[in-house]
Every structure is written in C-alpha cells, then in structure tokens.
Design a protein that fits this description.
single chain, Spore Coat Polysaccharide Biosynthesis Protein SpsA, Chain A, alpha/beta, 44% helix
Length: 340
C-alpha cells in the first residue's frame, strides 16, 4: 500500500530570484531552499543576475543554481528572463533578502494549490527572526507591506475559510488594492502563462490580472512564509524607499498598471498627508501596542515620516535621472543580517 507521500507526483518547481551584489544575504536564502522537504531533483533555481561584482555567482554555484545574465533596467526584466527559461509546473518568486521559514513550505504550498484550483497562488506570512533588528521586524512582520504609505492604501484581506493550516483569503468586493506576488509567492506556471507573464511580468501586476480574470482567492499557510530582511535601519529604509520609487516609476512608464489605483481605502495624497501630520501614525502606534503588545510598533511614527521622505526623494531622483540605466544599481542599499 502506497503512503500519501509516495502517491504524490511531485510536480516540478522553479525558484526565480533577481540578484545584484547579493553576497551578504544569498547563502541565507539559498540554504533555506536547500532545507526544503521537496525532492532536490524536482526543483531548479534560476538567478537573473544583473552582473554582480561580488561573490553572488560563486555562492549560487554552490547550490546548483542556473545563473542568467540580466541586462535589463530593472528587476522585472530579470524575472521575465528567468521565466522564459523556467521548466517548473509551479513558480516560486524569492528575493535575495528572503529566507523560507519552514522546511515543508514548498511541499505544502504545491499540495494546497493542487487542492484549491480556484486560488491564484500562495502568499507567505512575513515572520520575525532573531537575524532582524526591531525596525526590520516592524516593517516586515507588522506592516507586511514594508512601507507605511502602501500599508495605508492597501485593502484589508478577508479570511474566507481555514482547513487545518491552509487559509483561503480574498479582498472585499469592489477593490483590487493589495500588492500580491513577491517574497516567496507560489504560482502555477499555467496561470502565469494565461496572463503572458513571461512577456509583461511585474510582480504585483500578475496577481492583479489573475484576480480580474476571476481568481479572487489566494492561500496562506498558518505560521509559515518567509523572513524578509528588507532593511535593518530607519536610514536604510529611507534610501530603500527612494530606490523602490524610482523602480516603480520606471515600471509604470513601460506598463501603467498600478494596484494603488484599484479603489484603495485611502488615496495617495491622503496617505502622504497621514505620514507628515503625526496624529494618524501616533494613533496606529498606540493601537498596535495595545493589540499586539509589541514594542516594534514604536517605529511606526518615524517610519511614516521616513516613507514620505524616501518616496518623495525617489520621485525627484526619477525626474532628474530616470533614464539612466545604471541608476537602480547605484541606488542599491546594502542589506545585512543582524550581527553581520
């Protein structure tokens, strides 16, 4: 009699990761992939590398990853390039600043998607880690969206049902204002192909297209996901928001699709005003402290101001140097693990 594990056919999985001088973090994310219970001969790792000058490619080689030369102007072009070479039935988008939290994450994600054909993919929880500063834990674990302005403009997802550890989520009717698709997100390749992702990929665009095509649900696994080492300090966060804004505006120039225009609960101008008036951030700080008992919420007020400064700085930078192909690389912020 075959066990359940023996009956499972183990579809092929492709991990896709854009990189640029990712040496400080790369071993951390790749070792978390290597720890997965998914059989090694049933997955591949593809790095779209924008000509790193550090040990990125050497580290990738230790884990048997395929490395492609990414000559594009932004990370999305690298992801499209990697998609064109992917052979997996399921695609996992990871970044070099991620770490998969549990060894069974990919196995459970693939099985959950197979059992829930209505779902567009699997979103990971962003869990705290001892390798994070308190600021990093706040901006990833508590906000989940890594930016107070974007957090304020995001609709609150609604839990549809829970079956064991598998949760089904959706958005309220009438809005698509929620960024889905990065940091350990798992898609079926067939769904990506249905929206021509290998030709016009941008991480939050794909989920938006799929939701508009009728797949309004996605899955989460309780207590599982990624540690997202977005940035460890407030100043690094301001710089990171500058770079992210330049990147966002470049993508918008190529394909003007924007989840923040899909009936957000708060418009952009009001989100910006919220960040500089202090009253709103202070109220959310108090509410977060009372609800979670987590002092990380004390970062919310300074991070809100930092969000306004960083995003505004990015707009000014884009207006001055938006066409400079080397700009994104120049604006890269050094990311580290706590204590390193």
């Amino acid at each position: 009699m075959l066990s359940e594990a023996e009956k499972f056919q183990w579809p092929r999985v492709t991990f896709i990761m854009p990189t640029l001088n990712a040496e400080p973090l790369l071993d951390n994310v790749l070792s978390s992939i290597a720890r997965q219970t998914y059989p090694r001969d049933r997955y591949e790792i593809i790095l779209a590398d924008a000509h790193s000058t550090d040990r990125t490619r050497e580290i990738a080689g230790k884990y048997g990853a395929m490395v492609l030369d990414d000559n594009g102007k932004n990370m999305e072009e690298g992801k499209r390039l990697a998609l064109q070479h992917a052979t997996g039935d399921y695609i996992v988008f990871v970044d070099s600043d991620n770490e998969i939290t549990h060894a069974d994450y990919i196995e459970l994600a693939v099985k959950a998607l197979a059992a829930n054909p209505q779902a567009l993919g699997v979103e990971g929880y962003y869990l705290p880690s001892p390798k994070m500063s308190s600021f990093c834990a706040y901006v990833t674990h508590r906000l989940h969206i890594s930016d107070p302005m974007a957090w304020l403009m995001s609709a609150n997802p609604r839990l549809v049902a829970r079956d064991g550890d598998i949760e089904r989520w959706t958005l309220p009717e009438g809005t698509y204002s929620y960024p889905l698709g990065a940091n350990g997100f798992v898609y079926r390749r067939a769904d990506l192909q249905s929206v021509q992702a290998d030709e016009k990929f941008q991480d939050t665009h794909v989920a938006l297209f799929l939701m508009k095509n009728g797949q309004r649900e996605w899955l989460r696994m309780r207590g599982r996901g990624v540690h997202h080492y977005y940035v460890q300090t407030l100043w690094g966060f301001v710089q990171k928001r500058r770079r992210a804004t330049v990147h966002f505006l470049r993508v918008q120039a190529e394909m003007p699709v924007n989840w923040m225009k899909e009936k957000p609960p708060v418009p952009l101008w009001l989100a910006a005003l919220y960040c500089v008036t202090f009253v709103g951030p202070l109220c959310h700080t108090v509410r977060g402290l009372l609800r979670d008992g987590d002092p990380c919420w004390l970062w919310h007020l300074p991070a809100s101001l930092g969000s306004f400064i960083g995003n505004g700085w990015g707009v000014l930078t884009y207006r001055r140097r938006g066409q400079d192909k080397k700009l994104i690389a120049e604006l890269q912020v050094k990311q580290t693990l706590r204590g390193k």
